[in-house]
Amino acid sequence: MSGQTQRLNVVPTVTMLGVVKARLVGATRGHALLKKKSDALTVQFRQILKKIVATKESMGDIMKSSSFALTEAKYVAGENIKHIVLENVHTATLKVRSRQENIAGVKLPKFDYFTEGETKNDLTGLARGGQQIQLCRAAYVKAIEVLVELASLQTSFLTLDVAIKTTNRRVNALENVVKPRLENTISYIKTELDELEREDFFRLKKVQGYKKRELEKQLMNAKMFAEEQVAEKMSLQKGVSLHTAHNMLNDSSKVDEDIIF
């Protein structure tokens, strides 16, 4: 796209030039701020990505240990352990709450786990596998904590990804579309104002030339009128005709010129 088409359709005036310059300053300042925001979000994005990788690596070992703990509990306490656990548990003690964290103007969702109420060791006194069931419970609590942390990181990861793409689109639009269009508009207005100034200067020179010619014409008419008055006065004083008086004046003016030069 040529520079002629990448400009605003405005009237080339001094006022509009000031308005477009102000818009260019605002666009430049907004581009700098959005660029800083994009850099900050990118840094946070990479940190979250590293945490996700580390959490997923640790999650494999934790899930494996929790599965082995469940297998050991079933082996010790028997296959009917599920019914015993359900009878002794009425409400959840490990819960999750959500909050928001502000990163460079982007609100990232965060999930935190917390324990509500007291944990009773009702299964400890069982004849078979009470201690092993408690170990299994602790292993799965740890797995839940890792899963909550991983869910929080992945949700923040996706939100940051969308925010970074949106910010980068705005940065690219300001850098490649808005700013060049405003700069081309400023260049167009300056060119038109220079052309108008040259036209005004040419018009002024023409007016001055016309006034000069009119002044010369007026001076010539005044001189002819003065000569006519002098010729009439001379014809009356010397009793000659008006034509003869003009000739005498012309002869006297030639003599004066010869004396001067």
TrEMBL record:
Keywords noted in UniProt: Ion transport, Transport
GO function terms (MF aspect): proton-transporting ATPase activity, rotational mechanism
Signal peptide residues on this chain, from the entry's feature table: none
Coiled-coil ranges per UniProt: none
PANTHER family listed in its UniProt record: V-TYPE ATP SYNTHASE SUBUNIT D (PTHR11671)
Protein family: Belongs to the V-ATPase D subunit family.
Protein name from the UniProt record: V-type proton ATPase subunit D
Organism of derivation: Kingdonia uniflora
